[in-house]
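Lab channel / #folding
Pinned by the channel admin:
"Please post every new chain as: sequence first, then the structure tokens as a reply. Keep commentary short and put observations after the output so the thread stays searchable."

First post following the new format, from NK:
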Amino acid sequence: MQALITRFAAFWFAAWHLRQAPLRDASAQTRAAWLRDHNGQFAGRWFALGAGLWLVFMTPFVNAWPIALVGLFGLIMGMWHIGWQIVAQKRAGPPAIDPPVEFRPEDQQAEGNDDDAH
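Reply from TO:
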């Protein structure tokens, strides 16, 4: 049962990951960078749950107020994770950008070696 609760918390909450090693012992800058990079996933999960339950609640076949409350809670948690990501972006700065990649010379593209040619 404990493993099920742990998996549930790890899937839905970013704060759970911050309390586990190695992030628990990491610097504030590293934790902010992790939040900047991963909070979008958690927000997306909450938004999907909230919007899905709200749409189910709005159908004429299901009119149960607990579904609406859980849906609103999901939307609020999604907004909270997005807000947390924005704050982490300010603390950690923008993510590192890979250097530019060299393109193939024009003569190789003209010979028909391009797989993306239409």
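NK: The helical segments are 2-12, 14-18, 28-58, 65-92, 106-110.
TO: also worth noting, Residues 39 and 84 are 7 Å apart (CA to CA).
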